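Quick one - inputs below.
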Amino acid sequence: MFKGVNMKFIHAADVHLGNTFKGLSKQMPANLKKLVEESTIMAFQNMIRNAIEEQIDFILLPGDFYNVTKSGPAIQNIVTESFSLLKKNQIGVFLSFGNHDFEVDKQKHLPWPDNVQIFEQNVETKEIILNSGEKIAITGFSYQTPRQNNSVIDKFPKKRLNVDYHIGMYHGSIGNSGEPYAAFKIRDMLDKNYDYWALGHIHARQTLNEVPFIGYSGDLQGLNRKEVGEKGYYLVSPDKSQNLVPHFCKTTIILWQTLSINSLNDESDITEKIKSIKYDNKPVFMTILVDEVHNSVIKERIENGITLETLRKCTPEYIWIVKIIVKNTLLLVNHIDEKYWNQALENVMSEFNINDYLSEQVPITIREFFMTESGQQNLRESMQQLLSHHKEE
Amino acid sequence: MKIKQIYINGFGKWAHQEFDFSTNFQAIIGQNESGKTTIREFIVSMLFGFPTKKGQANVYDPKNGSKYGGSIIVDFPESQVKITRTGRVQSSLNIIDILTGEEISSPEEWLNKQLEPLNREMFDAIFNFSQMDLSKISKLKVNDLKRIILSIGAINSQQWLKLSEILEKESANQYTQRKNSQRVLNVLTNQYETHQLLINKSQVDVQNYLDLENQTKQVDSKIKQNQETLVSYKQKSEQLRAMIYHYGLVNQANKIKEKIKDSIVSISEMDILQYRQSKVSQNLIENKLNTLKKGMKEKLTNDFLIDVAQFKKSLVNLKLIHNRLDMLSSSLKKLQQKKQAINNLFEIEVPQALSKEEGALISKNMIFFHIASVVSLALIIASYSIFKPGILVGLMTGGYSTYKLMFHYKKIIDIKNRYGGISIKNIQRLQPKIRELPEINQQIKQISNGISKQLHQVEYDLNRDVGTIDRYFSIKKIEDLTLAISKLESQIKQSELEHQNQNQLVVIKQQQILSELKTYELQFEHEHQIQQILLDKYHFNNDADFEKGYFDSVEQQKNINRYHDLIKQIPDDQYNKLITIDNMSILEQKLSENNKQSELIENNIANLKTEVTKYKIKQEQLMSNDQYLSQQQDLANEETELIDYFEQYLAKKLTIRWINESLSLSSENRFPKMKTAALHYFSRLTFGKYVDMHFQKNNIRVVTNNYQIFDINELSTGTKEQLFVALKFALAQVISDVIALPLFIDDGFVNFDAKRRTEIIMILKEISKRQQVFYFSTALTNKEGINVLDL
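Output:
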C-alpha cells in the first residue's frame, strides 16, 4: 500500500510511559526489574518503529500517554526523539492528556517537535490534510485534573461536513454525568456522526460499537497482574466501504498471565503446568490462582511464601511468578451461624473506612488501595485466612 | 435424635459393657472416678470420631487391653442405625441400618450429613454443659460476662472472643496511629515517606536538562553566526588570492610587452621556407658541379691490371736463374753417372775404405814372429835338458809370438769378408776409387741443395713481387720455373692490351661530363636569383641576416601571443582595478589580515563547539543519572511490601470487628426466639422473681416482678449463674429446631440450693420431652420418670 492511496493511522491509548509496576516483589532479579521499568518505553518504541514501517499518516494518543504528570529527562528525551523521528517520516502526532498525565503540558518538558499537536482542556478540533489530499478533522480534549466530572461529550461538535473523516479522541468511561472520568454514553457518541472514536482510559481492549468504530485500544503493555494477555495498539484504515476499521498490533514486552489451578494437592502440580508454558520471545509474569488446597502442609507453605520461593527457583528464566493466590471458599459453610457471619462481613466491609485504621502518615496510594475493590477483596481473603487458621488450631 | 443403647468394647476404664438408654431423660449417677465422663466422651466419640492425642487430651485408651471402640444404636428421624467405631489410630467406622440390616456404604459422609451442620466443637459448645462453665461466671469481670452472655446466642462465641483478643494484641504490636511510634509498620511508613521525598527531589534534573538544552541552543545559534561570518571572510580571501594571481599576470604581461618592437619585420613562413629550400637545392647543385669538375680532372691513366714493370723484371730474373739451373742440372747428372759406375763394382754395396791401420796391417811382414816361435820351441827343448829355467823363458816368448800371429790373421780374414772375399791385392787396388765416392756424394748433395735452394728463393721472390692470393706460383722443380716464365709472359701481354682499351673509355667519359656541367651551372644561377629576390624583399644582405631576421620575427610573434594569453586570463573589470595598484605587497598584506580574521573566527567556533559538547555531556550525564524510573519502581516495590504488611494489619483489625459483628448478629437474631425460652427458665429458676428481660446491642437487662430493671452487673453471683443457665438452655432449645442432639449435663448446679436443684431437674424433664437429656451427677434425689444408671 502506498502512502496517500489509503489513509492509515494508529490509535494508541494508555501508553502509560514510565509506569511503575505495583505488586511486584523486591526479590525480583535485577534484569527483570530493569525490563519491567522500561517495558512501557520499549512497547512505545516498538509502536514508533511499526508506525514508520507502515508509513502511517498520523498517530492518536488519547490520554494517559505518560503514567504520571512529572517525568524524568530520560523518558522525555526518548519521547521527543521518537516524535522527531515521526516528524522526519512526515507522521503527525495528536496528543491529549488523561487522568494519569493531566497537565503534562503545564510541566517542565523538553520542547515538543512541531509535528505534535496537543489538545487543550477545552474540546477543540484540529484539521490535517494528508498527502493524498484527504482532509481529516480530529476533536479531543485534555484533562487538567485527575478527575473530569463534567460531561465533556456534550461539548463535542457534530461531524464537520467539509472533511473526509472526522475522528474523536476521548479519554473516559461509560457512565452517568458527574462521574469522575468524563462519563459518556454510546448514544452520545453515535449522535456526533463521527467516523471513528479513539477511546482511552480502559486498559482492556474492547469495542463499544462496530460501525462507526467506538472502542478502547487498551494499553501498550499490561501494567499489573490483572492486565493479562497481549497488549498493543490499533492500526486503522478504511475498508472498501470507507468505514474505518481497526487492526490490533502487539507491542507487549512483558506478558502477564494467570494460571488457574482448581485443586492443589502437591506443589509439583504447579511446576508441571508452568513447564508446559512455551516461551514466546517475551518474559511471562505469572499469577497462580488456586481454587482449593487440600493438603494443610501445602496450605501453610503457600501462606508462608515458601511455595512461591520454591517455585521461583525451579521455573524457567523467562517466567516470573508474581504471586500465588488461594481463593478461599467461605470458611464457615454449613455453620449454623453462616448467614450471620456473612452478613457481619458485609456489614464490616461496608462500614470500612481506611482513615479509621490508618493515619494520614500512611501514603495516600496505600490508603486508597484498600478502598479499591481489589484491595478490599485482598482484605476479605486475609480475614478469612485468619479465621480458618484459628479454626484449625 | 435419640441414643438407645451403647456397647463399649474398650474405652477408658470400660470394657465389654452395654448400657441401655430407653428413656429420654437418662441420669447416670456415680461417685467421682466412677466413669461418668468416660461414658459421655464415648457417646460423643461414637458420633463425631475418637479424640486425637493433639494437645495431650485424654484419648481413653482401654485399661485392660480390650479392643478400642464400641458401638451405639441411634434413632435418627428417618432411620435407626448401629454405629460401630473401632481402633483409635486406624479407626474404622461401620453403620448398619437396623430395620433393613444393610450396611451404609459411605458411613462417614452419611453420618456427617445426619449431624450437619454440627461438628464436635459446636456440639460441645451447644449441647455440653458443665459445672466448669458455671464456675467461670463468678470469676468473670462484668464486661466480659456481658459479652459472654450476649454471645451465648452465637455458637462457639468463647473461642471467637479469644481469637479476637489475640488479634487485638498482635495488631497493636504492628501499628499505631500515633506518629513517631517505633512499631514495625510505622517505621516502614516513615522510610517510604523519606524515599518518596528523595525521588521528588530528583525531578529537579528536568529543569537542569532544559536549561542545558537552552544554553546549547544559544551557543548553536552563535556558532551559526560565526560560521556565516567565516564564510564571508573566506570568500574575501579567495578574491584577494585571485587578485594577487591576476596582479602577477599583469606584471608578467607588461614585461613581455616591453620586448615587442615595431622595428622587427615579420617574415612570412613561406618565404623563409622557400629561401631555405632554395639554399638546400643550390648546395646540392654545387656539390654536383664539384663532383663533375673533379671527373674532368681525371687524365689518361698508366694504370694496368698488373705491375708490368715488375713482371718484366721478374721475368728477366727468372730466365737468368733458369739458365744457371740448367747448367747445374747437367753437372749433377755427370756426377751421378760416375757414382753409378763405382756402385756397379760391387754386388751389394760399396764397402768402407780401409783405414790406415788396416792398410798397414795388410802390408805388414810377420816373419819375425814366425822365427821367434821356432826359436822359442827350440829353446824349450834345449832348456829342458840343460837349463830348466830356460823353459820358462821359452814358454813366454813362444806364447807371445803365437798370440801376435793369431791376432794378425784374424783381422785379415775380417777385411776379406768385408770385401766379398776378393784378394788383398784387389782390395788394395780398389782403394782409391772407394776413397773418391764420398767426394762425389758430397758434390751431388751440394749441387742438389743449390738447385733446391735457388728454386725456393725464386718461388719466394716471384710470389713476393708479382704473386697474389689467387695467383700463387708454386715452384718446386725446374719445370715449374719454365711454366712460371711462360705464365708471366702471357699475363704481361694481356695487361698491356687492356690498358690500351681503358684509355680509350676515359676520353669518351670526359666529353659527357662537359655537357652536364653546363646544365648544372644554369640551375645554380637560377637558385641564386630566387634567393636574391627574397633577400631584396626583406632588405637583407645575406643568409645570416635573413635567418636572424626570421628568428626575431618568430620571437616577436611568441611574445605577442603570450601577452594576449595573459591579458585574456584577467577579468575585464579587474584589469582596470589592478593597474591602479602600485605593488603586490598591498594585496598580500590585505590577504594576511583577512586570513588572521578567519583564523580568529575558526578558533571561536571551535571553542563554542567545545562548549556545546560540554552541555551535551552534562545532559547525557543527567540522563544516565536519571534513576527516576528505577527509583519509582523501587518505591512501588516498597509500596507492595507495605501494602502486604498493612493488609495483614487491617485484616486483623477487621477480623476483630467481624467476629464481634457476627457474634452480636447471631445473638441478636436468636434472642427473640431465645427470649421466651430463656425468660421461662430464668423465671422458674428465680421462682418468679424476674419476669422479663431486654436484649440490647451491648447489654442485657432483666426486669423484676415489681418492674425494677437490673443491669447484669447489678445481679448477684447466683442470679448471674441462673441467667447463664437459662440462656444456655434456651440456646439448646432454639438450635434443636435445626438439629436435636441430646443435651449433656455434667455435674452441673453444685452451687444451687436443693430447691433450685429440684427445679432444674423439673426443667430438664420438660426439656427431655423434646430432646434426650443425659444428666451426669453424683446423686439424684427425685428419680421419678428418670431412667437411672447407677454406676
